[in-house]
Design goal:
The protein has helices at 3-21, 49-55, 67-75, 86-95, 131-144, 148-181, 187-200, 205-216, 224-249, 253-261, 267-296, 308-319, 323-351; strands spanning 39-43, 60-64, 81-85, 99-103, 110-115. By secondary structure, it is of the alpha/beta class. It folds into two domains: 25-128, Periplasmic binding protein-like II (D-Maltodextrin-Binding Protein, domain 2, 3-Layer(aba) Sandwich), CATH 3.40.190; 148-351, MetI-like fold. Strands 2-1-3-5-4 form a five-stranded mixed sheet. Strand 1 (39-43), helix 2 and strand 2 form a beta-alpha-beta unit. The longest helix has 34 residues, at 148-181. The protein is elongated.
């Protein structure tokens, strides 16, 4: 197991989370004039370009359409501060307590929002603590205090369920088609079916999920999770069948004759002679297909099912926190991918020992 590589990737992701959570303590905003020459986010034309240039002639305005995009721009440091209409600004500050505001211009209908660590005029900023405490506050706000961790668990359960159901179905269907192709009396059924499944792989998997959900199972009382797993299982079986066909076909025919001479027929021939020789070169491709299937489970969110990726959207809309849910879900997918590859390796090496 190359655990070091995966631990290193996780460490880098956590480091990025800490960096993104930290403000820049060397930059202090005492007034609007301190933003001269900076990049400023403007939400939904809260201020006109003419007024902006009048206040900050050397600064650059970045116009944004949604509050989540506005917060993401500030959180990632693409803009130093943001200008927003007062009511929307107060709504943002209510959900994101690590940000504060200054009045923008002569009226109080518009606010200038920035992270507390750079807003020197905020009294509480002095007691805001260090970078680690700010990170803990953001984790608490986006995952713990409002119970969003339960959504993460629910999304995790949905993602894993879809993957397991789909991968089992894909292997069974691919093996069944390979078996049917080997019997001349069943070829009349298996060949059209094989061609159909091969053709399906040329269609995007999300389109296939829509087709199954809105047409094939439209009138059936089946959950979106099950429909998605069926669609992805059919989709993945095409790739698995191609892999099986290529690597099993590369085994020399003399190996088949030798197995038959030893009295090994049917499944025993493949179990003890053919598969041990074919499994090692195909193992990497099987792992790649499994990881591709895992990533494709995120499409279930398009049919209103709450998976890991959909959960990040829910948390973002509720808390205006983007980075922490995204990085958390990315780490979960990274760990799941590692577990899948290592599990596949253990199964292949234990069941079909290679020389």
């Amino acid at each position: 197991m190359n655990i070091y590589k995966y631990l290193k990737n996780i460490a880098f992701a956590l480091l990025a989370l800490v960096i993104a959570s930290c403000g820049n303590p060397d930059t202090k905003l005492h007034s609007i004039a301190d933003l001269e020459g900076s990049h400023v986010a403007v939400l939904e034309k809260a201020v006109s370009d003419k007024d902006f240039k009048k206040q900050l002639p050397d600064s650059h305005a970045k116009h944004l359409k949604s509050s989540s995009e506005f917060l993401l721009t500030l959180s990632t440091g693409k803009c130093d501060a943001g200008i927003v209409e007062k009511q929307k600004g107060l709504s943002i500050l209510k959900k994101r307590t690590d940000y504060a505001a200054l009045p923008y211009g002569e009226t109080d209908s518009t606010l200038l929002i920035a992270h507390k660590s750079i807003l020197a005029v905020q009294e509480e900023a002095a007691h805001d603590g260090n970078a680690f405490s700010r990170l803990i506050d953001r984790l608490d706000n986006s995952l713990v205090s409002h119970g969003y961790w339960r959504l993460i668990l629910q999304g995790f359960s949905t993602t894993v369920s879809i993957f397991l159901l789909a991968i089992i179905q894909a292997f069974i269907l691919a093996i069944l088609l390979m078996w049917m192709n080997g019997h001349k009396y069943i070829k009349y059924i298996s060949k059209p079916l094989s061609y159909f499944i091969k053709t399906i792989h040329d269609v995007p998997s999300i389109v296939l999920i829509f087709f199954f959900y809105y047409f094939v199972f439209a009138s059936a009382n089946i959950s979106a999770t099950l429909v998605c797993s069926i669609a992805l299982g059919v989709y993945t079986s095409s790739s698995l069948m191609k892999i099986f066909k290529v690597y099993l076909g590369q085994i020399d025919k003399t190996q088949h004759f030798a197995a038959q001479m030893l009295g090994l027929n049917g499944w025993k021939k493949y179990r003890y002679v053919i598969l041990p020789q074919a499994i090692k070169p195909m193992q990497g491709f099987l792992g790649s297909e499994a990881k591709r299937l895992l990533r494709a489970t995120s499409y279930v969110g398009y049919i209103s099912e709450l998976d890991l990726v959909k959960v990040t959207e829910v948390i973002r809309n509720q808390t205006y926190e983007i980075l922490i849910p995204l990085l958390l879900v990315s780490i979960i997918f990274l760990v799941l991918s590692h577990i899948i590859v290592e599990t596949l390796s253990v199964i292949c090496n234990k069941a079909f020992k290679n020389d």
